[in-house]
Amino acid sequence: MVAGDPMLRFRTLTILVVLAPGCMCGEALVQLPGAARGRVCDADTGRGIGQVSVQIDADPGRTVLTDADGAWVMGDLPIGPATVTADVERVVRRFYVEVESGQTAIVVDPACRELPGVPGSGRIEGRVCNRHVGDVVTDAQVSVAVDEDNTLTTATDGEGRFTLEEVPVGPRVVVVRAPGFQVSLPVEVRDDETTVIEAEGCAVDDPNVEDPPTNDPPAEDPPTTDPPVEDPPTNDPPTTDPPPDPCQPVEVDIFLLGDCLSVSCPAATPVPVGCNVLFSPGDDRGCVAHTPGDSDVYFQAGDQCNVGVVGGTLLCQAVGCGGGAVVALDAGNCPINKPVDIYAADPGGCPEVH
C-alpha cells in the first residue's frame, strides 16, 4: 500500500454471532425423561384389578398401586428398555417396554379385554290354564331365573294372567306353581319385545273381549206354507255318551331345565301311578323319588341339581282306583333312560342329598 493513494480505502467487516442461551460449544443436548402407564386385569374375567403393586426396573425401589379399574402410571423414568412387574395374588407378571424421551409408553396386559355390553331386556306376559280341568289358574306363583342368584317373580290374577317386566334377553324358562299344579314353559325373550304365553286348555271366555257392534237389522226367516215335517216314530232307545271313567289317569306336564323338580298330582287325582319322562344324556344316573301314598314325586337328572333336563308327564289317578292298592313307582311304570336308574322313597336317596 502506498501512503496517500486516494484510490485505496480501508473497509471494516462486522460479523454477528448469535448463541443459543445456555448452549456451550461441545456440550451434548439433555434428553427429557419418559413415562409409562397400563392396566392389570383378571385373567378369568378380563376386568381390572385394584391395589396391585407395580414396579419398573428402570427406577428400582419405586412402587405404585393400581386404581379400582386396574390402571397405573409412572413418570420421570430413564430412557431405554425396561421391565415392568405386577404382583397379582403372589403371581408375578412381567411386561417389557421401551421408554422414550418425552413420551409415555403403553404397557398392554393380555388379560385385559373388552367386556360384553349390558344385554337388553323384554317382557313376558301370558295366561295360565289347567288343561285337565279346562279352567284358569289363579294366584299362582310365576317366576323366571335371571342368573344363579336372581329370580323375577309375580303372581297370576283372577283371570290367570301375569306380566314379568325387564326380563334379560335370551332363552328363559317360566315356572308356574300352584297347589296341585306345576308347569315349566321355555321361552325366548327378545330385546324391547313382548313374549306372549297362552297356555292351552282354557275353556273360559275372556270377559275383556266384546263382540263388535253392528247396525245390520236382525235377519228374519222367510215365510213358508209348507206343512211341518215330523220325524218318523222310532222305538230305538235314546243314545247317551258313556260317563267318563273316574279311574282314567290324568297327565301332569313335567319340564325340568337345570334344576331338581318335585311335581304334585292334582287334588282330584292325588295318586301317582306312573310317568312318561325323558332324561337328557350326559350323566350315567337318573333318579325318581316317591313315597307310596304321597302325591309328590321328585325327579333328578344326574348327580347335581344344576344340570340336566327332564321332560314328559306324570300319570295321576283318583283314590280307590285299581282296588285301592298302594302304587310304587319303578322301572315298569316310570322308566328312566339312564344306564343307572335309581328309585328312592324320598329325595335323600338320590345321588345328591337334599
Question: What do you see in this structure?
Answer:
A hairpin with a 4-residue loop joins strand 9 (129-130) and strand 10 (135-136). This protein is 0% helix and 40% strand. It has no helices and 23 strands. With 354 residues, the protein is mainly β. The chain folds into three domains: 34-107, Sandwich (Immunoglobulin-like), CATH 2.60.40; 121-198, Immunoglobulin-like (Sandwich); 250-349. A four-stranded antiparallel β-sheet has the order 3-2-5-6, with no helix packed on it.
Which features does this protein show?
40% strand, four-stranded antiparallel beta sheet, single chain, Immunoglobulin-like, 354 residues
Strand element count: 23
Major sheet attributes? 4 strands, antiparallel
Number of domains: 3
What amount of the residues lies in strands? Answer: 35-45%
Side by side, the strands of the main sheet go 3-2-5-6
Choose one word for the global shape.
elongated
Number of helices: 0
> Uncertain runs with pLDDT below 50, 5 residues or more?
6-20
Give the N-terminus to C-terminus distance in angstroms.
126 Å
Report the mean per-residue pLDDT as an integer: 80
Q: What structural class do you assign from the helix and strand content?
A: mainly beta
| SSE order | EEEEEEEEEEEEEEEEEEEEEEE
Radius of gyration: 42 Å
- What is the helix content? under 10%
